[in-house]
Amino acid sequence: MLVWFLPLFLIFLLIGLPVFFSLLAAPGILLWLNGQARDAAMLYRNIYNGIDSFPLMAIPFFMLAGELMNRGGITLRLVEFSQAMMGHLRGGLAHVNILSSILFAGLSGSAVADTSAIGSMLIPAMEKQGYSKKFAAAITAASSVIGPIIPPSGIMIIYAYVMGESVAALFLAGIIPGVLVGISLMIVVRLMANRYNFPPATVKYNWAERGKASLKAFFPLMTPVIILGGILGGIFTPTEASAVAAAYALFIGLFVLKSLEFKDVPKVFQKAALVSSVVLLLVGAAMAFKTVVSLSHAPEYLADFVLSLSDNPYILLFLINILLFIVGMFLDAGPAIIILGPILGPVFTDLGVHPVHFAIIMSVNLTVGLATPPMGLVLFVASSVSGEKVETIAKAILPFLAVEVVVIFLITYFPALSMTIPLLTGFAK
Questions:
Q1: How remote is the C-alpha of 64 from its chain's centroid?
Q2: CA distance 122 to 140
């Protein structure tokens, strides 16, 4: 009977019940109907147990670092740096949008923060230069999914916690896929720029001007260097790295760049705490949900079903990518990873897929889902920032989603793209 928890969970989602309550209500009701009161009590105790974790402390600290960077005007410096490097190209502001997202990803690891911060500056600027509002919103939403792929990434921290993988290995494995997504979007922009005669954003900067823009962006750009350098050098753990990133963001905002005032700090902490609490509550509920997944033997049933379709891992990876893409249309990446990771991960590990490789496949696929209709979260944020309808943005984003899907399959069938850096550095074996 417990196996029916998943259909019941989907029904709750369809009728509009928030994910947190759906995750708890579906298994709780079935455990109660099944007479398993002790297991039902354990389900709700596991909410706290799921949150009470040292590795998960990285999430609120990275959220705080991103908020401090954003409030301190760091985003503006990244945009100016990107414009100095790429603004002279045809379709310059669209290229600037993508490069800014790549750089911002190394600060916050959040697609929503990227869409809000970069979109609020670049969407109006693109509109003034003659781009349609729907195109500006679409490229902003499409490029924002790079945020959770390039380290630091909250989604990968969650996956590592749930599946017992190395956070450092997942961070390193996300670098090349994230850059690939950015390059693929730039190729599409270049093709569209030639066809629709998009204008350059600025005249070509000389190297002195580029050097000046680089100096202005130096301290923000050092953030990912400090995070990854500290982790790879064994100086601190990923969790400690998140605290260092937040302290560094606070220090440069208040004392170096002086772009952040003391009166702004309480509001920044309040917003970071609110966003972090939502994420951590979802993690706690999903970890409790995971308990019922194991009690119901759903992983074993799914494994048998998957293996009955084919014994060829390449075909199975294709099918799972399709499944994950569909799931990403309706469910946020974090809850989807926590629910499906323990079910799908062991199946593909047994088929010979490296655990870190599968983690990247799943993380990138579900992250792209943040920009897919009908429920893509960044579509709604882009709509809010731009004032354009979600349906209009959803149509305009299709060419960009198409190339992101191509990147997903490249990552899937060419493991070296994601595995080379972790293997060379010894963080994946």
A1: 16
A2: 8
Q: How many residues does the chain have?
A: 429
Contact 140, 119 (CB under 8 A): yes
Contact (CB, 8 A) for 362 and 324: yes
Domain holding 72, by residue range, is 2-425
Q: Enter the tokens of residue 393.
A: 């943005």
CA-nearest of 238, 342, 248, 239 to 289 is: 342
Q: What's the total number of domains in the chain?
A: 1
Place of tokens 């929503």: 112
Q: What's the CA dihedral at 311, 313, 315, 316 to 10 degrees?
A: 90
**What would the pLDDT profile of 105-118 be if each residue is shown by its tens digit?**
877 677 877 888 78
What's the rounded Cα separation, in Å, for the pair 19 and 281?
Answer: 10
- Helix (H, G, I), strand (E, B), or coil: what is residue 107? coil
* Cα 289 from Cα 6, distance rounded (Å): 10
Token duo for residue 77: 């410096």
Q: Which residue in this structure is represented by tokens 């869409």?
A: 115
pLDDT(300) > 70: no
pLDDT over 60 at 148, yes or no: yes
C-alpha 168/C-alpha 156 separation (Å) is 9
Give, for 393, the enclosing helix (H) or strand (E): helix 390-396
In angstroms, the Cα distances linking 335 to 153, 157, 325 are 15, 13, 14
Q: Six-digit token pair at 408?
A: 């997903």
DSSP secondary structure, 70-97, as one string: HHTTHHHHHHHHHHHHHTTSTTHHHHHH
Q: What percent of the chain has pLDDT over 70?
A: 93
| Separation between Cα atoms, residue 13 and residue 171, nearest integer Å | 31
Q: pLDDT tens-digit profile of 178-203?
A: 999 999 999 999 999 888 888 777 77
- Distance between CA atoms of 258 and 360, rounded to whole angstroms? 38
351's tokens: 């088929």
Phi, psi (rounded to 5 degrees) for 164: 70, 30
